[in-house]
Write a structure and sequence with these properties.
Length: about 475
Protein backbone atom coordinates (compact mmCIF):
# COMPACT_ATOMS: atom_id res chain seq x y z
CA UNK A 1 0.00 0.00 0.00
CA UNK A 2 1.49 3.32 -1.13
CA UNK A 3 0.86 6.57 0.70
CA UNK A 4 1.16 8.65 -2.44
CA UNK A 5 1.60 7.90 -6.14
CA UNK A 6 2.44 10.45 -8.83
CA UNK A 7 0.86 8.78 -11.82
CA UNK A 8 1.45 9.05 -15.59
CA UNK A 9 4.30 11.56 -15.28
CA UNK A 10 7.68 11.79 -16.97
CA UNK A 11 10.58 11.28 -14.58
CA UNK A 12 13.77 13.34 -14.77
CA UNK A 13 15.75 11.68 -12.03
CA UNK A 14 18.34 14.37 -11.14
CA UNK A 15 21.40 12.42 -12.30
CA UNK A 16 21.38 13.98 -15.76
CA UNK A 17 19.99 10.77 -17.30
CA UNK A 18 17.33 11.06 -20.04
CA UNK A 19 13.71 11.34 -18.98
CA UNK A 20 11.39 8.35 -18.98
CA UNK A 21 7.70 7.82 -18.44
CA UNK A 22 7.01 6.27 -15.06
CA UNK A 23 4.83 6.42 -11.97
CA UNK A 24 6.53 7.25 -8.69
CA UNK A 25 5.26 5.56 -5.52
CA UNK A 26 5.96 6.83 -2.03
CA UNK A 27 5.72 5.08 1.31
CA UNK A 28 6.20 7.31 4.35
CA UNK A 29 9.17 9.57 3.78
CA UNK A 30 10.74 7.52 1.01
CA UNK A 31 10.39 6.70 -2.66
CA UNK A 32 9.43 3.05 -2.77
CA UNK A 33 8.97 2.26 -6.45
CA UNK A 34 9.36 3.76 -9.91
CA UNK A 35 7.70 2.21 -12.95
CA UNK A 36 4.25 1.04 -13.95
CA UNK A 37 2.22 1.20 -10.75
CA UNK A 38 -1.20 0.92 -12.36
CA UNK A 39 -3.56 -1.05 -10.18
CA UNK A 40 -1.40 -0.53 -7.08
CA UNK A 41 -3.41 0.64 -4.06
CA UNK A 42 -2.55 4.05 -2.64
CA UNK A 43 -3.97 6.44 -0.05
CA UNK A 44 -3.57 9.31 -2.50
CA UNK A 45 -3.05 9.33 -6.25
CA UNK A 46 -2.05 12.50 -8.07
CA UNK A 47 -2.41 12.38 -11.85
CA UNK A 48 0.56 14.21 -13.35
CA UNK A 49 0.10 13.28 -17.01
CA UNK A 50 2.08 15.61 -19.25
CA UNK A 51 4.20 16.87 -16.37
CA UNK A 52 7.81 16.32 -15.28
CA UNK A 53 8.46 14.57 -11.96
CA UNK A 54 11.86 15.68 -10.66
CA UNK A 55 13.70 15.63 -7.35
CA UNK A 56 12.87 18.67 -5.20
CA UNK A 57 15.21 21.55 -5.96
CA UNK A 58 18.08 22.36 -3.62
CA UNK A 59 18.77 26.05 -3.13
CA UNK A 60 22.51 25.80 -2.71
CA UNK A 61 22.83 29.46 -1.79
CA UNK A 62 20.16 30.94 0.44
CA UNK A 63 19.77 33.62 3.09
CA UNK A 64 16.65 32.14 4.65
CA UNK A 65 18.13 31.81 8.16
CA UNK A 66 15.33 33.90 9.60
CA UNK A 67 12.54 33.19 7.10
CA UNK A 68 12.68 29.52 8.19
CA UNK A 69 11.56 30.76 11.62
CA UNK A 70 9.48 33.85 10.88
CA UNK A 71 7.63 32.55 7.77
CA UNK A 72 7.91 28.76 8.01
CA UNK A 73 5.58 28.30 5.02
CA UNK A 74 8.61 29.34 2.97
CA UNK A 75 6.35 30.31 0.07
CA UNK A 76 8.99 32.12 -2.02
CA UNK A 77 10.99 28.89 -2.14
CA UNK A 78 8.31 26.21 -2.07
CA UNK A 79 6.41 27.93 -4.89
CA UNK A 80 9.43 27.52 -7.17
CA UNK A 81 9.91 23.86 -6.34
CA UNK A 82 12.64 24.20 -3.73
CA UNK A 83 12.58 21.51 -1.03
CA UNK A 84 15.94 22.22 0.64
CA UNK A 85 17.72 25.48 1.43
CA UNK A 86 21.36 25.94 2.44
CA UNK A 87 21.45 28.96 4.73
CA UNK A 88 24.18 30.92 6.48
CA UNK A 89 25.94 32.01 3.29
CA UNK A 90 28.25 34.98 2.62
CA UNK A 91 29.58 35.01 6.18
CA UNK A 92 26.22 35.88 7.68
CA UNK A 93 24.24 33.49 9.85
CA UNK A 94 21.62 34.28 12.48
CA UNK A 95 23.55 32.33 15.11
CA UNK A 96 25.55 32.22 17.27
CA UNK A 97 25.11 35.64 18.85
CA UNK A 98 26.25 35.33 22.47
CA UNK A 99 26.12 39.11 22.99
CA UNK A 100 23.56 41.80 22.19
CA UNK A 101 23.79 42.57 18.47
CA UNK A 102 24.85 46.20 17.80
CA UNK A 103 22.17 48.79 16.91
CA UNK A 104 21.67 49.56 14.10
CA UNK A 105 22.45 45.97 13.10
CA UNK A 106 25.88 45.78 11.45
CA UNK A 107 25.54 45.46 7.65
CA UNK A 108 25.41 42.95 5.98
CA UNK A 109 23.92 41.13 9.01
CA UNK A 110 20.95 43.48 8.55
CA UNK A 111 20.06 41.54 5.38
CA UNK A 112 18.83 38.80 7.75
CA UNK A 113 17.11 41.06 10.27
CA UNK A 114 17.09 44.82 10.61
CA UNK A 115 15.48 44.93 14.07
CA UNK A 116 18.09 42.80 15.78
CA UNK A 117 15.36 40.81 17.60
CA UNK A 118 16.07 37.66 15.64
CA UNK A 119 19.74 37.56 16.66
CA UNK A 120 18.46 35.96 19.83
CA UNK A 121 20.24 32.59 19.71
CA UNK A 122 23.33 32.66 21.88
CA UNK A 123 24.50 29.34 20.45
CA UNK A 124 24.06 27.53 17.14
CA UNK A 125 22.54 24.68 19.05
CA UNK A 126 19.67 26.89 20.21
CA UNK A 127 19.04 28.14 16.68
CA UNK A 128 18.82 24.60 15.28
CA UNK A 129 16.68 23.55 18.24
CA UNK A 130 14.19 26.32 17.51
CA UNK A 131 13.98 25.14 13.88
CA UNK A 132 13.55 21.49 14.79
CA UNK A 133 10.87 22.25 17.37
CA UNK A 134 8.79 24.15 14.82
CA UNK A 135 9.79 22.70 11.45
CA UNK A 136 9.43 24.77 8.29
CA UNK A 137 7.90 23.58 5.01
CA UNK A 138 11.31 22.79 3.47
CA UNK A 139 14.49 21.03 4.58
CA UNK A 140 17.39 23.13 5.70
CA UNK A 141 21.13 22.83 6.16
CA UNK A 142 23.00 25.59 7.93
CA UNK A 143 26.44 27.13 7.65
CA UNK A 144 27.91 29.26 10.40
CA UNK A 145 29.00 32.69 9.18
CA UNK A 146 32.48 34.05 9.81
CA UNK A 147 31.17 37.64 9.86
CA UNK A 148 28.63 36.66 12.51
CA UNK A 149 31.49 35.15 14.53
CA UNK A 150 33.45 38.40 14.08
CA UNK A 151 30.53 40.50 15.31
CA UNK A 152 30.14 38.09 18.23
CA UNK A 153 33.80 38.03 19.22
CA UNK A 154 35.53 41.23 18.10
CA UNK A 155 35.61 44.84 19.17
CA UNK A 156 37.04 46.39 16.00
CA UNK A 157 35.80 44.83 12.76
CA UNK A 158 38.14 47.07 10.80
CA UNK A 159 41.15 45.15 12.10
CA UNK A 160 42.45 41.62 11.71
CA UNK A 161 41.43 39.46 14.65
CA UNK A 162 43.83 39.11 17.60
CA UNK A 163 44.95 35.68 18.85
CA UNK A 164 42.36 35.84 21.63
CA UNK A 165 39.58 36.81 19.23
CA UNK A 166 40.56 34.03 16.83
CA UNK A 167 40.48 31.53 19.69
CA UNK A 168 37.02 32.77 20.67
CA UNK A 169 35.70 32.50 17.09
CA UNK A 170 37.20 29.04 16.71
CA UNK A 171 35.44 27.87 19.88
CA UNK A 172 32.11 29.24 18.63
CA UNK A 173 32.70 27.59 15.25
CA UNK A 174 33.42 24.20 16.84
CA UNK A 175 30.26 24.46 18.95
CA UNK A 176 28.27 25.18 15.78
CA UNK A 177 29.82 22.27 13.88
CA UNK A 178 29.12 19.95 16.81
CA UNK A 179 25.53 21.17 16.89
CA UNK A 180 25.06 20.33 13.21
CA UNK A 181 26.38 23.19 11.07
CA UNK A 182 27.53 21.73 7.75
CA UNK A 183 30.41 24.16 7.43
CA UNK A 184 31.58 27.75 7.60
CA UNK A 185 30.96 30.61 5.19
CA UNK A 186 32.91 33.82 4.71
CA UNK A 187 31.98 37.16 3.15
CA UNK A 188 35.43 38.64 2.68
CA UNK A 189 34.19 41.30 0.25
CA UNK A 190 32.21 43.03 2.98
CA UNK A 191 33.63 45.85 5.11
CA UNK A 192 32.99 43.77 8.23
CA UNK A 193 35.30 40.95 7.13
CA UNK A 194 37.63 42.59 4.62
CA UNK A 195 40.42 43.01 7.15
CA UNK A 196 40.43 39.31 7.97
CA UNK A 197 43.71 37.84 6.75
CA UNK A 198 43.94 34.44 5.12
CA UNK A 199 45.55 33.23 8.37
CA UNK A 200 42.60 34.44 10.41
CA UNK A 201 40.21 32.53 8.15
CA UNK A 202 42.30 29.36 8.24
CA UNK A 203 42.69 29.47 12.02
CA UNK A 204 38.99 30.13 12.67
CA UNK A 205 38.10 27.25 10.30
CA UNK A 206 40.84 24.93 11.61
CA UNK A 207 38.36 22.30 12.85
CA UNK A 208 36.32 21.98 9.66
CA UNK A 209 38.21 18.87 8.58
CA UNK A 210 37.53 17.07 11.87
CA UNK A 211 33.80 17.64 11.44
CA UNK A 212 33.71 16.93 7.69
CA UNK A 213 32.67 20.53 7.15
CA UNK A 214 32.62 22.49 3.92
CA UNK A 215 33.99 26.00 3.24
CA UNK A 216 31.72 28.37 1.28
CA UNK A 217 32.89 31.82 0.33
CA UNK A 218 31.65 35.09 -1.03
CA UNK A 219 35.18 35.85 -2.14
CA UNK A 220 37.22 38.94 -1.33
CA UNK A 221 36.92 40.28 -4.86
CA UNK A 222 34.49 39.52 -7.71
CA UNK A 223 35.83 42.29 -9.85
CA UNK A 224 39.35 43.35 -10.92
CA UNK A 225 40.98 41.04 -8.34
CA UNK A 226 38.96 37.92 -9.20
CA UNK A 227 41.95 35.70 -10.03
CA UNK A 228 43.72 36.56 -6.75
CA UNK A 229 40.47 35.91 -4.86
CA UNK A 230 40.14 32.50 -6.51
CA UNK A 231 43.77 31.69 -5.66
CA UNK A 232 43.10 32.65 -2.03
CA UNK A 233 40.00 30.45 -1.94
CA UNK A 234 41.88 27.43 -3.31
CA UNK A 235 44.72 28.02 -0.84
CA UNK A 236 42.25 28.10 2.06
CA UNK A 237 40.74 24.83 0.82
CA UNK A 238 44.16 23.18 0.57
CA UNK A 239 45.36 24.42 3.95
CA UNK A 240 42.15 23.23 5.62
CA UNK A 241 41.93 20.11 3.47
CA UNK A 242 38.20 20.59 2.89
CA UNK A 243 35.94 21.14 -0.15
CA UNK A 244 35.35 24.76 -1.13
CA UNK A 245 32.26 26.31 -2.69
CA UNK A 246 32.66 29.55 -4.64
CA UNK A 247 29.46 31.43 -3.92
CA UNK A 248 27.51 33.16 -6.70
CA UNK A 249 30.42 33.23 -9.11
CA UNK A 250 30.31 36.41 -11.17
CA UNK A 251 32.41 39.07 -12.85
CA UNK A 252 31.46 42.54 -11.73
CA UNK A 253 32.15 45.79 -13.52
CA UNK A 254 32.29 46.53 -17.24
CA UNK A 255 36.04 46.15 -17.49
CA UNK A 256 35.77 42.58 -16.23
CA UNK A 257 33.13 41.52 -18.73
CA UNK A 258 34.19 38.36 -20.54
CA UNK A 259 36.63 37.25 -17.88
CA UNK A 260 34.72 34.03 -17.23
CA UNK A 261 36.95 32.91 -20.12
CA UNK A 262 39.80 33.17 -17.57
CA UNK A 263 38.08 32.12 -14.36
CA UNK A 264 36.34 28.94 -15.51
CA UNK A 265 39.48 27.25 -16.93
CA UNK A 266 41.31 28.25 -13.73
CA UNK A 267 38.54 26.72 -11.60
CA UNK A 268 38.61 23.62 -13.78
CA UNK A 269 42.37 23.22 -13.23
CA UNK A 270 41.95 23.64 -9.46
CA UNK A 271 39.21 21.00 -9.48
CA UNK A 272 41.71 18.43 -10.69
CA UNK A 273 43.79 18.94 -7.54
CA UNK A 274 41.19 19.59 -4.82
CA UNK A 275 37.41 19.53 -4.30
CA UNK A 276 35.93 22.77 -5.63
CA UNK A 277 32.47 23.70 -6.85
CA UNK A 278 30.46 26.84 -7.42
CA UNK A 279 26.96 28.21 -7.47
CA UNK A 280 25.34 30.87 -9.62
CA UNK A 281 22.02 32.72 -9.79
CA UNK A 282 20.48 33.18 -13.23
CA UNK A 283 20.49 36.97 -13.57
CA UNK A 284 23.00 39.59 -14.66
CA UNK A 285 22.12 41.85 -11.74
CA UNK A 286 23.16 41.18 -8.15
CA UNK A 287 21.69 42.40 -4.90
CA UNK A 288 23.06 43.26 -1.49
CA UNK A 289 23.38 46.16 0.94
CA UNK A 290 23.40 49.70 -0.43
CA UNK A 291 26.88 51.24 -0.47
CA UNK A 292 28.33 54.17 -2.42
CA UNK A 293 31.28 52.26 -3.89
CA UNK A 294 28.97 49.58 -5.24
CA UNK A 295 26.64 52.10 -6.92
CA UNK A 296 29.63 53.68 -8.70
CA UNK A 297 30.36 50.41 -10.46
CA UNK A 298 27.15 50.12 -12.44
CA UNK A 299 24.91 52.15 -14.67
CA UNK A 300 21.65 51.02 -13.16
CA UNK A 301 20.76 50.55 -9.48
CA UNK A 302 17.30 49.78 -8.04
CA UNK A 303 16.68 50.34 -4.34
CA UNK A 304 15.24 47.26 -2.60
CA UNK A 305 14.80 48.71 0.88
CA UNK A 306 15.77 51.76 2.85
CA UNK A 307 15.35 52.38 6.57
CA UNK A 308 15.06 56.19 6.30
CA UNK A 309 13.00 56.08 3.06
CA UNK A 310 11.00 52.85 2.89
CA UNK A 311 8.61 54.49 0.39
CA UNK A 312 11.37 54.66 -2.22
CA UNK A 313 11.93 50.87 -2.41
CA UNK A 314 11.50 49.64 -5.98
CA UNK A 315 12.69 52.87 -7.60
CA UNK A 316 15.80 53.52 -9.64
CA UNK A 317 18.56 55.34 -7.79
CA UNK A 318 18.88 57.86 -10.64
CA UNK A 319 15.19 58.74 -10.38
CA UNK A 320 15.48 59.11 -6.62
CA UNK A 321 18.50 61.38 -7.02
CA UNK A 322 16.52 63.51 -9.49
CA UNK A 323 13.53 63.73 -7.12
CA UNK A 324 15.79 64.70 -4.23
CA UNK A 325 17.72 67.11 -6.45
CA UNK A 326 21.08 65.67 -5.40
CA UNK A 327 23.85 63.58 -6.95
CA UNK A 328 23.90 59.79 -6.85
CA UNK A 329 26.39 59.54 -3.99
CA UNK A 330 24.40 61.95 -1.84
CA UNK A 331 21.16 60.12 -2.66
CA UNK A 332 22.79 56.82 -1.68
CA UNK A 333 23.96 58.25 1.64
CA UNK A 334 20.47 59.50 2.42
CA UNK A 335 18.94 56.07 1.70
CA UNK A 336 21.34 54.12 3.93
CA UNK A 337 21.04 51.74 5.62
CA UNK A 338 19.38 50.04 2.69
CA UNK A 339 19.67 47.46 -0.04
CA UNK A 340 19.89 47.53 -3.81
CA UNK A 341 19.90 45.61 -7.07
CA UNK A 342 23.07 46.26 -9.04
CA UNK A 343 23.25 45.71 -12.81
CA UNK A 344 26.92 44.91 -12.71
CA UNK A 345 27.42 41.81 -14.87
CA UNK A 346 27.58 40.74 -18.49
CA UNK A 347 24.83 38.37 -19.63
CA UNK A 348 27.31 36.27 -21.60
CA UNK A 349 29.40 35.63 -18.48
CA UNK A 350 26.22 34.57 -16.66
CA UNK A 351 25.35 32.10 -19.42
CA UNK A 352 28.90 30.73 -19.57
CA UNK A 353 29.02 30.23 -15.79
CA UNK A 354 25.58 28.62 -15.72
CA UNK A 355 26.65 26.24 -18.48
CA UNK A 356 29.87 25.18 -16.71
CA UNK A 357 29.28 21.53 -15.75
CA UNK A 358 29.99 21.93 -12.01
CA UNK A 359 27.83 25.00 -11.47
CA UNK A 360 24.96 24.47 -9.04
CA UNK A 361 21.94 26.75 -9.01
CA UNK A 362 21.45 28.97 -5.98
CA UNK A 363 18.99 31.81 -5.54
CA UNK A 364 20.91 34.17 -3.24
CA UNK A 365 17.41 35.54 -2.59
CA UNK A 366 16.97 38.16 0.13
CA UNK A 367 13.59 37.43 1.75
CA UNK A 368 13.29 40.54 3.93
CA UNK A 369 13.76 43.21 1.28
CA UNK A 370 10.68 45.35 0.56
CA UNK A 371 11.13 45.06 -3.23
CA UNK A 372 13.46 42.07 -3.51
CA UNK A 373 15.53 40.96 -6.47
CA UNK A 374 13.27 38.60 -8.51
CA UNK A 375 15.69 35.72 -7.87
CA UNK A 376 14.00 35.26 -4.47
CA UNK A 377 10.84 33.88 -6.10
CA UNK A 378 12.07 32.99 -9.55
CA UNK A 379 15.63 31.64 -9.78
CA UNK A 380 14.84 27.96 -10.38
CA UNK A 381 11.90 28.30 -12.81
CA UNK A 382 13.99 30.85 -14.74
CA UNK A 383 16.78 28.32 -15.25
CA UNK A 384 14.27 25.71 -16.46
CA UNK A 385 12.23 28.11 -18.59
CA UNK A 386 14.36 30.95 -19.83
CA UNK A 387 17.77 29.26 -19.94
CA UNK A 388 16.97 25.61 -20.75
CA UNK A 389 13.79 25.82 -22.85
CA UNK A 390 14.18 29.34 -24.21
CA UNK A 391 17.90 29.92 -24.71
CA UNK A 392 18.74 26.23 -25.06
CA UNK A 393 21.87 26.54 -22.89
CA UNK A 394 21.45 22.94 -21.78
CA UNK A 395 18.87 20.17 -21.75
CA UNK A 396 16.14 20.06 -19.15
CA UNK A 397 17.87 16.98 -17.71
CA UNK A 398 21.08 18.97 -17.16
CA UNK A 399 19.17 21.95 -15.75
CA UNK A 400 17.45 19.67 -13.21
CA UNK A 401 20.77 18.01 -12.33
CA UNK A 402 22.30 21.41 -11.54
CA UNK A 403 19.59 22.06 -8.95
CA UNK A 404 19.26 18.54 -7.50
CA UNK A 405 21.72 15.65 -7.90
CA UNK A 406 24.80 17.83 -8.34
CA UNK A 407 24.06 19.96 -5.29
CA UNK A 408 23.18 16.95 -3.12
CA UNK A 409 26.47 15.26 -4.08
CA UNK A 410 28.58 18.38 -3.46
CA UNK A 411 26.96 19.14 -0.10
CA UNK A 412 26.84 15.51 1.00
CA UNK A 413 23.05 15.30 1.35
CA UNK A 414 22.82 11.56 0.96
CA UNK A 415 19.55 10.14 -0.29
CA UNK A 416 18.49 13.53 -1.69
CA UNK A 417 18.53 15.11 -5.11
CA UNK A 418 17.63 11.95 -7.01
CA UNK A 419 14.52 9.96 -7.86
CA UNK A 420 15.41 6.39 -7.05
CA UNK A 421 14.02 3.70 -4.76
CA UNK A 422 15.07 4.38 -1.17
CA UNK A 423 15.71 8.07 -1.71
CA UNK A 424 13.89 10.64 0.40
CA UNK A 425 10.65 11.68 -1.25
CA UNK A 426 11.49 15.32 -1.98
CA UNK A 427 9.73 15.76 -5.31
CA UNK A 428 8.82 18.67 -7.58
CA UNK A 429 6.30 18.25 -10.37
CA UNK A 430 6.37 20.92 -13.07
CA UNK A 431 5.14 21.68 -16.57
CA UNK A 432 8.15 21.84 -18.91
CA UNK A 433 6.12 23.87 -21.44
CA UNK A 434 5.23 26.72 -19.11
CA UNK A 435 7.70 26.71 -16.21
CA UNK A 436 9.37 30.13 -15.90
CA UNK A 437 9.66 33.22 -13.75
CA UNK A 438 7.81 35.48 -16.12
CA UNK A 439 8.26 38.51 -13.88
CA UNK A 440 11.04 41.00 -13.66
CA UNK A 441 12.40 43.70 -11.42
CA UNK A 442 9.15 45.67 -11.35
CA UNK A 443 6.92 43.06 -9.75
CA UNK A 444 9.16 40.58 -7.96
CA UNK A 445 6.83 39.16 -5.30
CA UNK A 446 4.75 36.40 -6.89
CA UNK A 447 4.88 32.68 -7.54
CA UNK A 448 6.52 31.51 -10.74
CA UNK A 449 4.59 29.67 -13.47
CA UNK A 450 4.48 25.95 -14.01
CA UNK A 451 5.22 24.47 -10.58
CA UNK A 452 2.31 22.10 -9.94
CA UNK A 453 3.13 19.99 -6.87
CA UNK A 454 5.92 19.77 -4.34
CA UNK A 455 6.41 16.99 -1.79
CA UNK A 456 8.84 17.36 1.10
CA UNK A 457 9.80 14.11 2.83
CA UNK A 458 6.78 12.41 1.30
CA UNK A 459 4.27 15.06 2.34
CA UNK A 460 2.57 17.30 -0.23
CA UNK A 461 3.50 20.84 0.74
CA UNK A 462 2.43 22.54 -2.52
CA UNK A 463 -0.47 21.16 -4.55
CA UNK A 464 -2.21 22.53 -7.63
CA UNK A 465 -0.21 25.73 -7.34
CA UNK A 466 -1.02 26.40 -3.68
CA UNK A 467 0.55 25.74 -0.30
CA UNK A 468 -1.05 22.93 1.70
CA UNK A 469 0.23 24.23 5.02
CA UNK A 470 2.33 21.11 5.63
CA UNK A 471 5.58 21.71 7.49
CA UNK A 472 7.56 18.54 6.94
CA UNK A 473 11.07 19.97 6.54
CA UNK A 474 14.01 18.37 8.30
CA UNK A 475 17.49 19.44 9.27
CA UNK A 476 20.06 18.01 6.85
CA UNK A 477 23.62 17.20 7.76
CA UNK A 478 26.61 16.48 5.62
CA UNK A 479 27.24 12.83 5.09
CA UNK A 480 30.68 12.07 3.70
CA UNK A 481 31.39 8.57 2.46
ZN1 LIG B 1 27.23 36.81 -1.17
Amino acid sequence: MFDLIFKHGTVIDGTGAPRRDADVGIVGRYIEAIGDLSGEPARQIVDVAGLIVAPGFIDSHAHDDRMLLSSPDMTPKLSQGVTTVVVGNCGISLAPMPRTVPQPVTPPLDLLDRSGDWFRYSSFDRYLDALCRRPPAVNFAALVGHTTLRVAAMEDLGAAASDTEIAHMRTLAVQALKAGAIGISTGLAYTTAMSATIDEVVRVCEDLRAYDGIYCTHMRDESDGIMEALAETFEIGRRLDVPVVISHHKLSGARNFGRSHETLPYIERAMRMQPVCLDCYPYHAGSTVLEVWRTRRCDRVIVTWSTPHPELAGQDLDDIAAILGVGRDEATQRLMPGGAIYFSMDEQDVERILTFPCTMIGSDGLPHDNQPHPRLWGAFPRVLGHYARGRGLFSLEVAVHKMTGLSAAKFGFSGRGVIEPGACADITVFDARTVDAGFGYGEPIRPACGIAHVAVNGVLAWADGMTTGAHSGQQLRRCVT
